Amino acid sequence: MKQIMIVMMLSIFTLGCAQKAPEVSKTQFSKEALNQKLEDENGKNISVQEILDQHKGKVLVIDFWAGWCRDCLKALPKAEELEKNNPNIDFVFFSLERSKEKFDNSLERFNMKEKENYWFSSGWENNFNKYIDLNWIPRYMVIDQKSGIAKYYAISPEDPEIQATIDRLLK
C-alpha cells in the first residue's frame, strides 16, 4: 500500500511539473504583454516593448532562465554555443530569479554580466509570462526583425527549429 501511494504521488508530481507545449503558437504579443515591466541590472524599469524596440531590425533570441534552475544551467553551454554560432543575432536573457540580490548573484556566478539581462521583479506570474504560456524554464523564443514571434516555443538551445528559424529570417 505504501509503495502504491509513493508511485501515485510521484506520478502526480511528474505530471504536474512537466513542461507542456502550448496548444497555440502565437505570432504577435498582446498589448498587455508588451507593457510588462522588467528590471535591468541597474534596477531600471523597462517594458518588453522597449526591449523589442532596441532590437528592431535584428533577429532576437529570448532566453528565459534562472540560477536555481538545474535544466537552465545544464543548457547554458549550448545556449552560449548558439550565440557564438550566430554573431549577427541579438540575444537577451530574461531571468526568473526570486529577488534582485539573487539575480545579481546569478549574473556574477554564471558569467552573464557581459550579456543583456533583465529580470521579472514582479515574479513569474505576470502579463507577459501568462501571454506566452510560460510554464517551465528554460524556454527560448525567436523574434523576427519586426518584433513578431517567429519561433514561439523551444525548451532547448539545441532545438533544430531555433537555428532553422534564424536561418530563414536571415535570407
UniProtKB/TrEMBL annotation:
<keyword id="KW-0732">Signal</keyword>
<keyword id="KW-1015">Disulfide bond</keyword>
<dbReference type="InterPro" id="IPR013766">
    <property type="entry name" value="Thioredoxin_domain"/>
</dbReference>
<feature type="signal peptide">
    <location>
        <begin position="1"/>
        <end position="20"/>
    </location>
</feature>
<dbReference type="InterPro" id="IPR012336">
    <property type="entry name" value="Thioredoxin-like_fold"/>
</dbReference>
<keyword id="KW-0676">Redox-active center</keyword>
<dbReference type="Pfam" id="PF13905">
    <property type="entry name" value="Thioredoxin_8"/>
</dbReference>
<protein>
    <submittedName>
        <fullName>Thioredoxin-like domain-containing protein</fullName>
    </submittedName>
</protein>
<dbReference type="InterPro" id="IPR036249">
    <property type="entry name" value="Thioredoxin-like_sf"/>
</dbReference>
<feature type="domain" description="Thioredoxin">
    <location>
        <begin position="27"/>
        <end position="171"/>
    </location>
</feature>
<keyword id="KW-0201">Cytochrome c-type biogenesis</keyword>
<dbReference type="InterPro" id="IPR050553">
    <property type="entry name" value="Thioredoxin_ResA/DsbE_sf"/>
</dbReference>
